Automatic annotation (TrEMBL):
Pfam families according to UniProt: DUF6596, Sigma70_r2, Sigma70_r4_2
Domain RNA polymerase sigma factor 70 region 4 type: 124-172
GO terms of molecular function: DNA binding; sigma factor activity
Organism (species): Micromonospora cremea
The name this protein goes by in its record: RNA polymerase sigma-70 factor, ECF subfamily
The family this protein is said to belong to: Belongs to the sigma-70 factor family. ECF subfamily.
GO annotation, biological process: DNA-templated transcription initiation
Ranges where the DUF6596 domain occurs: 190-287
Stretches of the chain forming a coiled coil according to its record: none
Keywords: Sigma factor, Transcription, Transcription regulation
Domain of life: Bacteria
Record-annotated RNA polymerase sigma-70 region domain positions: 21-85
Amino acid sequence: MPDKGAAGTGPVGSSVEAVFREERGRLLASLVHRFGDLDLAEEVASEAIEAALVHWPTDGVPSRPGAWLLTTARRRAVDRLRRDRVLATRLAVLQAEAERADAAPPADADRDLPDDRLALFFTCAHPALPAQDRGALTLRFLAGLTTTEVARAFLVPPATMAQRLVRAKRKIRDARIPFRVPGADELPERLPTVLQAVYSIFTEGYAASSGPDLQRTDLAEEAIRLARILRRLLPAEREVAGLLGLMLLIHARRAARTGPDGGVVLLDDQDRGRWDHRMIDEGRRLVLVALTGGPPGPYGLQAAIAALHDEAADVASTDWPQVVALYDVLLGLVPSPVVALNRAAAVAMRDGPEAGLALLDELADDPRLRGYHLYPATRADLLRRLGRYGEAAAAYRSALTLVGTEPERAHLLRRLESVIAEEPAD
């Protein structure tokens, strides 16, 4: 599929782009389901978008644009199969169904697309694929991130990511990985990868890795939509409820996270009246589901922490002892340096900045945090609270070399200027 923005410019181009963003996952999944070939599905989906740019300016945008794109892409796929003698056997199997679809009356194009996205999610998360390839495939083909954006998420060059995606698609084809939702016996192994992929989409939307904006709400909302689908399909899976609850509780703050100029507004300074309290209520109900019926999972625990933040009247009145206790349990399940960093920040709120700083110092040599701007930024804030302005300035400078978005850069620059101003003159 083309990268985002390839659909064209102007009113019609904008309409195609809007449809593509809304329908891309379902379109690709439906084509893979029908033809069993991810490369073919990508190519004909792209051709369908190009056809829309030709026909829609004169014919108008159809009432079911996604179904129009599917019908067009399906016919292009059948044409390709007919021309390719190597694929004659596959065509023999598919031809009867495809020709029936081609012969359908015009009203056929007005039907909604079938939603095969979950099957494509589980295909991308198949255990035969390396873990890093599973996440990359899901972000590229289900969320519609560009290859460059996926590369940034995995901290590799775009050319490296492009090769990785090609290799992963070849593996799916050569290993004949089935396009289906797995059975109950396979879910424990496969579901965590799917959940991680959805959460990766959300985190790129909630806190963009680079660019002019702090948030990409389209990606965050796409992740929430996908989690809702998972929740409907797997209502007994408590970690699905936990993930959906976590994302809702975080996304509920979106309107208050930036100022009128797009600048960062920290949790301490946010107008909590602007938070989406209906979304918070839904998230809290899901937390109860995630924490009931057995030991909690990582997403349920993170959702419980997010709920404590959302329930508090302000930062000072947050139940920090309970937040730290939940991080203690989470760190036992997920011994991640990022979890340890977040726990240190919570300890600083419970016991004071010196206690939090001591924990951060224990993480200083962890190579997994070397490219993570929030480590030096958190350390700088604690040093500033302790009045160690020179050290804080150095830490803010370190964070500035790693930060990706312009709003975060501007925030760190303001903090750097403030601590420089506090430094005593020689």
